[in-house]
């Protein structure tokens, strides 16, 4: 399956965190990525510094200790079907890293593991 029209999905702002040894934050800012920060009403001692970020916080801390350049790309999304956000994330990474030629990047292939993670599609007869 190929997802077309990925460029239309740039509606969720991209955020990033980086280790202090990563020296090219200007490029990320030029790509309109915003430096990630918790909302002022959230106490960082009571929550992860990256809600829903899994091990990203720990990787960042370890890379910081070792002086390894490291960047985390963050797209805030809700639970459920996040295919659009996944394609948006890969498109944002492509903007930065040039993984694929721009003329080819609108046709990202969906991994086969995503085929039916939410079960079968609703029967068309119910509509």
Number of strands: 5
Distance between the termini: 24 Å
Q: Helical segment tally?
A: 3
Q: Please write the string of helix (H) and strand (E) elements.
A: EEHEHEHE
What integer value in Å does the Rg equal?
Answer: 17 Å
Shape: globular
Judged by helices, strands and strand pairing, the structural class is: alpha+beta
Query: What percent of residues adopt helix (DSSP H or I)?
Result: 25-40%
* Low-pLDDT windows of residues: 5-10
The main sheet orders its strands as: 3-2-4
What's the average pLDDT? 80
Q: Would you write up a description of this structure?
A:
One of its GO terms (cellular component) is nucleus. This is Proteasome assembly chaperone 2. Keywords: Proteasome. One of its GO terms (biological process) is proteasome assembly. It comes from Caerostris extrusa (Bark spider). The protein is an alpha+beta fold. Helices cover 25% and strands 13% of the residues. It contains 3 helices and 5 strands; from the N terminus they run ββαβαβαβ. The strands form 2 sheets. It has a 3-stranded mixed sheet. Helix 1 links the parallel strand 2 (14-18) and strand 3. Mean pLDDT is 80; it is low at 5-10.
Task: Draw up the topology in text.
Elements: E1 2-3, E2 14-18, H1 25-30, E3 34-35, H2 56-66, E4 71-75, H3 83-97, E5 108-109
Parallel strand pairs: 2-3
Antiparallel strand pairs: 1-5, 2-4
Question: What's the short version?
Answer:
25% of the residues lie in helices and 13% in strands.
């Amino acid at each position: 399956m190929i997802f077309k029209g990925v460029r239309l999905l740039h509606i969720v702002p991209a955020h990033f965190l980086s280790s202090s040894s990563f020296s090219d934050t200007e490029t990320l800012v030029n790509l309109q990525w915003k430096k990630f920060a918790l909302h002022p009403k959230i106490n960082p001692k009571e929550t992860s510094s990256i809600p829903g970020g899994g091990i990203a916080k720990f990787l960042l801390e370890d890379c910081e200790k070792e002086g390894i350049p490291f960047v985390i790309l963050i797209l805030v999304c809700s639970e459920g079907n996040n295919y659009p956000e996944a394609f948006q994330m890969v498109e944002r990474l492509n903007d930065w890293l040039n993984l694929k030629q721009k003329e080819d990047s609108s046709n990202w292939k969906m991994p086969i593991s995503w085929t039916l993670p939410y079960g079968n599609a609703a029967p068309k007869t119910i509509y």
